[in-house]
Amino acid sequence: MEFSQYILLAIIALGGFLYVSQILAIETTSILIIACLALVPGLLDGPEAVFSGFANEATLTIASMFVLSRALIRTGALEFLAIRMGRAAAGSLPQLLLLTALVVVPSSAFLNNTPIVIMMVPILLSLCRQFEIKPSKVLIPLSFFSILGGTCTLMGTSTNILVNSLYRNFAAKTEGFEMYANGFSLFSFSQMGLIYLAIGVVFILMFSRRLLPERSSLSGMAHPERKAAFVTEIVVPEGSPLVGRTVSEVFSDTDLTILELVRGEEIILPASAGELALLVDDALIIEGRPQEIDSFLTKSQAALASVVEDDTRVPMKTVEMKLAEAVVLPDSPFEGRTVSGLRLNAHYGVKVMAVQRHGRQHLYHIRRMRVHAGDVLLIQADDAGLNELRESEAVLVVEEVDQTRVNKRKAPLVMLTLLGVVAAAALTSSTPGAPSLAHLAIMGVALVLVTRCIRVDEALRSLDTTVLLLLAAAIPLAGAIHHTRLDSVGVEGILGLVGGADVNPYIFLSVFYLLTSVLTTFLSNSAVAVLLFPIAMGLAQETGINHESLLVAICFGASASFASPLGYQTNLIVMGPGGYTFRDYLKIGLPLNLLMWAAATVFIPLFWPLKETA
Predict the structure, then answer these.
(1) Could you give the 3-state DSSP secondary structure of residue 381?
(2) What is the average per-residue pLDDT within 505-523?
(3) What domains can you pick out in the chain, each with its CATH number?
(4) Using an 8 Å Cβ cutoff, are 124 and 219 in contact?
């Protein structure tokens, strides 16, 4: 290996470590990678290549789709459809899951799935309360449906858009590949995507009830129709007559409902807490009317729990404020900051009661805790405070069906704009010199901005800087891998792993898909796609295997990631509201990943023959 290859390997290893550990924000890591590529001479084909990721059509297409997705959701069109179809479920969990798929899958095929999942979480929690269904039974399926929908079209996921962009650029610059300069068409992945979708939906409908846990979020436990009831937290102090009495005994003669018993860092649900004797410093999450709570506090000599007002903890002043959960989103500016440093009380009048991480609730020393994507803040605020926090779009406020402003009059125009982009992309994708998907998407963004379907500030907030900066770093990194011939080293390593270039191409494809899927469990799907693209093209040239079959393996292996909350943003978003742990994703996601691995091995060669280019 050459010196430049060792340097590039070090940059990739450092970037991968920082992405996984998140010691630095993902945006910071991405900019650090760009800086390293710029500082070390010889890694890229010219100094301007360092910034190729910012001007790449994949980055521009994905940015445009964020805006179009936000514009459609802002009009309330999808929310109206989701609520109508949810009500048609008539209280049946299988029907609710199936109808959720009918809304989410086609939406995710043409829109960015992150805002769709953010929109659907409060709607499904509301329906779960109405039907008395545990949210943990529907939120992982929601994420999985959005992932499966994204595999059905070229524009359905950032991975497909990125791989297609890299493919077009490679074909334009490489002798003998001119015929592939148009890349994949809008519906190139549809047949394979529909097979994935059928397998995934059947698996979820058959096994999700058994494999998913029975858990509720705090916000999902309080019935919205009980308008005068409030949820609050009380602490059992020393000397209280509650000490030593069982939970069932304490609440047998009251109209209060206990939602959770928190002992230390352990959360105990009512079904398991009934015969437990209360101890000093136990925290009780209860629901009831203000008068009932006040009477209970007087008789029990208990105290309302304290909350965090930025730098200090203070007693909870009133039960006349709403309790809600705020899920920290993957691209949130709150990422990596301490609870006190967020200044939520100063900015929004919001007080933090607890932080939930990986299914465990932290009540003490939370001012110094640094929040990360997927954490759930248990907050207390009035309606105005919750609305302001919701409008910041830094968190997903889970309290009831989203109350953000919508402009339903603009819904038909946004729908027609999106349909126009899709139709134009479908009709012109194989026409030389026709506008690319990036051109069409930017035209769509211009139209929704000019017609004021979405405000400029809302459009800017809709841009996921985590994804966009990751692409801006990953694209020149892919160029560096090819320019330094590090891809040739990767090709030799994989050929050595599978037994040489003469190995059965089905085994080769299967191993390559598995490698993609495993890497996506730890790294982002876009990063995996960029790392493996030059290796896939090198392997195809070395073995004679159809290069498109390997590129499709990257697209589906990197997109269809189910076994970890880290592999896909939507998995992380539903983790807190569903009360999930890493084990829950592994339990249902690993079998589904294995099914998709088998499906890819069988069906990819049917649509993209392995020896077509031999």
Answers:
(1) strand
(2) 86
(3) 219-398 (3.30.70.1450)
(4) no
